[in-house]
Specification:
The chain is α/β, with parallel strands linked by helices. The protein has a single domain, classed as Ribonuclease H-like superfamily/Ribonuclease H (Nucleotidyltransferase, domain 5), CATH 3.30.420. Helix content is about 45%, strand content about 20%. β1 and β2 form a beta hairpin. α2 crosses α7, α3 packs parallel to α5 and α4 crosses α5. It is globular and about 55 Å long.
């Protein structure tokens, strides 16, 4: 208590202020990758009881600005294979773009665990894709994987859901109205949260 009084002597913090400040710090930390890195958010979507699915990928620079967004129609058997395919496709796209330092974010903790831990044996339906991802990692100067909550992956989710209604890969212009609106509302959410 004394240490807290010395550090925060000019302010009495209510529990709500502490939680609100922690949430804002988390959102600010998550919104943009470190300088020199490109961040890619990946997600997969599928329709209930069907193998029709879609992959969503969005790349951002160190300022959090969107660089590229892709929707890819893909047959998926379930969420985990879809998430693995989205990560593999993101790495292949990053390599084609000449990106050397990459931060990969996904809202599927399990697939990230399989990728990062070579001692974990993934299920058969994702084993080949996980091995592909591990091999692709060696083509980058730096690549890291981070689990993010679904709320921090909404644009990749929206782009993946768009893929459910298309027949081929779509490279969305960042100025596409629905995508532009989504990116803007996310940015305003971060800005609004950080100034409350």
């Amino acid at each position: 208590m004394r240490r807290n009084n010395r550090v925060f002597k000019t302010k009495d913090w209510s529990p709500i202020e502490v939680i609100s400040t922690a949430e804002r710090a988390f959102l600010e930390f998550q919104s943009a990758p470190p300088l020199g890195f490109i961040k890619v958010n990946c997600d997969a979507a599928n329709t209930q009881g069907d193998t029709a699915g879609g992959l969503g990928i969005i790349f951002r620079d160190h300022n959090g600005r969107p660089l590229k967004a892709l929707s890819i129609s893909q047959v998926v058997s379930s969420a985990i294979p879809g998430e693995a395919l989205a990560i593999r496709e993101a790495l292949m796209q990053a390599r084609e773009l000449g990106i050397t330092n990459l931060l990969v974010e996904s809202d599927n903790k399990e697939i990230i665990s399989f990728i990062e831990d070579p001692n974990r044996v993934p299920p058969l339906d994702v084993a080949v894709v996980v091995e592909d991802v591990r091999e692709l990692c060696s083509t980058f100067v730096s690549v890291s994987f981070l689990f993010v909550p679904r709320a921090m992956n909404v644009i990749a989710d929206a782009v993946a859901r768009k893929a459910l209604f298309i027949m081929c890969m779509t490279d969305w212009s960042i100025s596409t109205p629905w995508l532009d609106d989504l990116c803007l509302s996310e940015a305003i959410g971060y800005t609004h949260d950080s100034h409350q």
